[in-house]
Amino acid sequence: MGVPITLPAGSTIGKSYEYGLDVNLGTFGSPIWQPFRRISGFQPSPTPTTQDAQTYDDYGATNSDVTGWSWTLAFLAQVNRSITTGLYLPEVEYLNARTRPSAKGEAAVADVRWYHKPEVGVANPTDAGRGFCTVAYTRQNTGPGGEIEQLAYTLTGKGAYTEIANPFTVVNPSAPVITSILPSGRGAGGAVTITGVGFQGATAVKFAATDAAAFVVVNDSTIVATLPAGSAGSVNVTVVTPVGTSNAVAYTRT
Questions:
Q1: Count of alpha carbons within 13 Å of 110, Cβ hemisphere only?
Q2: Where are the alpha helices (DSSP H) in the chain?
Q3: pLDDT of residue 236
Q4: How many angstroms from the chain centroid is the CA of residue 11?
Q5: Residue 236 forms beta bridges with which residues?
Q6: DSSP string, 181-213
Q7: Taking burial as the number of CB atoms within 10 A of a residue's CB, which of 142, 145, 146, 200 is the most buried?
Q8: What is the DSSP letter of 51?
Q9: Cα–Cα distances in Å, from 92 out to 12, 34, 84, 151, 198?
Q10: CB 113 within 8 A of CB 21
Q11: Residue 8, C-beta contacts closer than 8 angstroms, at least 6 positions apart
């Protein structure tokens, strides 16, 4: 039996969805980076340009030098449009404008950047690039069954792309925070509204060590909880999520 190969401590396996793509709605010097929403299947493809460098010293073996790099980006995008104007999202409109019959020369060139975008942890600082490209797309999901409208884009680089510092900053989720519990003076079976932040995905609401009789996470900042049985007086209330346990806030019950 082989010896298992271990990974370095603190490492995590990468996910297929951990990439981001932005288009520049501004100028090159004063960019306005618009994230491309609802993408999937993001596939960067750097391709070497080579030149034959074979000599007698190679004894008949091939020998090629890399003289440059071409690149393409391919991805799918779900198409969302405004029901009042009919226009696509601005990032979709930006790329599609580069494919119109009138789009020639610089009018057919897009300015984009792409980067490693992890779910948790620090982004790879060197896995990011920016470049000019031309645009082509095909419409996917064209069947009669009402499929989600989707475009398949191919961005073809004009010259080499520029290596840039990764612009993505991971905001790691933090433990929930309770700011208030109202109204006061409720007894067993009574409902209270807990406000704060970080409640999404809450797994428990505790009155001291006792779980709430029931609770509903209304949104990230609001929980409605039913008080469990217990003695009248002050009791510390906490909210538990997969990230951690909130601060304890005293609640006076009857």
A1: 29
A2: 90-97
A3: 95
A4: 20
A5: 250
A6: EESSS--TT-EEEEEEE--TT--EEEETTEEPS
A7: 200
A8: E
A9: 33, 10, 17, 9, 32
A10: yes
A11: none
Cβ–Cβ under 8 Å, residues 134 and 98: yes
Residue in this structure with the two tokens 């942890």, named with its chain if needed: 121
Half-sphere exposure of 154 (CA within 13 A, CB side): 8
Using one digit for the tens of pLDDT, what is the confidence trace for 62-115?
Answer: 999 999 999 999 999 999 999 999 999 999 999 999 999 999 999 999 999 999
The β-bridge partners of 65 are 51
Tell me the β-bridge partners of 115.
Answer: 20, 128
- Single pTM value for the model: 0.67
Tokens of 143: 């069947």
Q: Distance between CA atoms of 214 and 226, rounded to whole angstroms?
A: 5
Confirm if 96 and 120 have CB atoms less than 8 A apart.
no
Phi and psi at residue 71, to the nearest 5°: -150, 150
CB atoms within 10 A of CB 111: 18
Measured distance CA(249)–CA(218) in Å, rounded? 19
115: closest CA among 107, 103, 123? Answer: 123
d(CA 147, CA 157): 31
Q: How far apart are CA 230 and CA 216, in angstroms?
A: 20
How is residue 100 written in tokens? 């119109």
Which residues have CB under 8 Å from 236's CB, separation 6+?
207, 208, 248, 249, 250, 251
Measured CA to CA, the distance from residue 237 to residue 249 in angstroms comes to 5
